Protein 1
Amino acid sequence: VTSFTWMITVSLNTNMGVAWHRFLGFPNIWFKRNADGSTALGALQPMTTAGKEIDWEDPAEDAVFGVSQVEQFSWKGILDFSTCTECGRCQSQCPAWNTGKPLSPKLLIMSLRDHAHAKAPYLLAGGGKTMEGEEKASEEQLAGVPAAALAEAERPLIGTAEENGVIDPDVLWSCTTCGACVEQCPVDIEHIDHIVDMRRYQVMIESAFPSEAGTMLKNLEKKGNPWGLAKKQRVEWTKEVDFEVPIVGKDVEDLTEVDYLYWVGCAGALEDRAKKTTKAFAELLHMAGVKFAIMGGEEKCTGDSPRRLGNEPLFQQLGQENVAMLNMAFGEDDEDESTKKPKSAKKIVATCPHCFNTIANEYPQLGGEFEVIHHTQLLQHLIDEGKLIPVTPVDGLIT
Ligand code: SF4
Ligand code: SF4
């Protein structure tokens, strides 16, 4: 009797916040992003409008870029917000929250939930704003909507406290997209997808993003690396080692002649501290007799940062150029009849975790199917095979 009374009470009060997680937890986990049950990490989702992927060659005239109103989230987004148990596991793991930033993934999800529920009577009556900010519903349609719901509908989804916004822009920009919240959530809420969708609107429509990001994005557009350096500088580090580093198109015709393409990445090629890792890793490959080559400087940033900042077109541009270049560097290859994939693996080793994730997990969205391993995996493999013998003992665990 107690349980039934409780269920009836909750059913009659759809805005009873946290109470709903008892019923929504199961469907939310069932409908998680990845059908194989894995956590929604790794690749970001391509941008969609009206449930369809945006065609960047020819975007629809009425395409909606990112999310600026709560009703523009997918139904899965609304289900996510309504499912939060308020357990706080995401918040306790969040590096932004733990370093005093204004972002708490728990409060973010709760704010979106409360806003969606409070605005619901207005939306159900046909309310909503056009891109130009005009009201879609007639006065008659909105006549029976409670004043509180009308007031909620006037709040901007993204706005400061003075603007009575639901999510402060500083909250949005505090997220590192590390994924700890998604990993920890007991009901599989997919925070990052929603945060990035709101960033996409901010960047692409409002051109509103932290000033530090502006210079970086401009450099990526013009020069293909975050510091705006000339492309020939990408291979300068090869002159600082006392062995030959083969370059594709110069020392080797294409990558069929080697076992691995070493993807050095922008930081690894251009930034002093990261260059030390690059040189040390290349030296170890050389010592172990691994046949490898690097790109010749024409390659661009993989596009990881612009994508996570919400600049999807720039990611698409950089990614497509890289995929075309990589496919050419790997040479023509026969396709396997059954799998429709190249017969021989296109192997890439990466020292940069951002490049690793983007090439392995996101480039398949752009037609780039590569087998990517992290440099630590390759080093371990070489040690296991006896091709590298560690000489300095290391005590303890190192991450
Ligand atoms: S992805 Fe963002 S919100 Fe989630 S734990 Fe990392 S920094 Fe926090
Ligand atoms: S871990 Fe999930 S359920 Fe718990 S507070 Fe965070 S978003 Fe809500």
Protein 2
Amino acid sequence: MRINTANGPIDAKDLGKTLMHEHLVIAFPGWESDTAITNQTLREMTAVCVDKIAELKDAGISSMLDPCPNDIGRDVPLMAEVASRTGFNIVFATGLYHKHYGGSPYWSIKFMTTPDAEKRLGDLFIKELTEGVQGTGIKAGVIKIATAAPPFNDYEKTIFRAAARAHLETGAPITTHTDAIMGDEQLAYLTSLGVPAHKIIIGHSCGSADHDYHMKIVQGGAYIGFDRFGMEDIQPDTTRVQRLADLVKKGFEKQIVVSHDSVWCWRGAMLSKEMIEKEHAQGMAMRFTRTITPMLKEAGVTEKQINTMLCDNPCRYFSGEPCGHNH
Ligand SMILES: [Zn+2]
């Protein structure tokens, strides 16, 4: 099964160990208004990302998914440059973020004023998946959609419907952002629109410590994202490890994908310089292999099961094959 990367199509079997949620750059809408600061140039950002990828390669990782949607700073030329310099596989997304922090002023007005806006949004996703982004020929490989706090609003539902249609037309899988809540609702809505559960990752689920919530997602047949290792102020890693081990004990290791949700460059002064330096010093992107793997083993997860999560599951997700469980 061929999948799109920033460096052109590859065979899903060649992904190897894959982090399923990391970011080269994020820029929340409004960053341009902060004119008091000097942003990094493309060249400076490229240097930062190339360094990060060298660390990942040292840790045995060969691929990543950067699921940044179109409206929070996705930078396709940066991804293409970094991918070609490093030979690292970067799968990237087409999609839109949730109503609170995404490009909702633009899209809300469009949904109100343009009768076929939902169709046009779905067509945009399809175009980026099949023809490429803005005439570059560089194609997205996944569809990113998001919700935040309840309720699941009409703005987000419109985006979900456009995404479901783009999936049905292209076969591209879907990955979501959650605030570790409503993942089960996302899954129910997408499957009601005809998207098979095994084509969906419910992201950031490890932000919840609720095992029953996790079970709803895996029993529903979706992949579950334990993709924020290192974000200790949201959820301690000890809890993430325990909840992950609980799922493995019940036999769901074929549905877990792992990552850190690290952000390597920010546009605008999102975080203080000290915070960014601290993150870089901690080697955020290597945390899973260096720190989390021994913790998982301690909790009873085997090397083989860790490899299933890092390697087999991303391959199977992109290939679109069911994981073999009876749900
Ligand atoms: Zn993210």
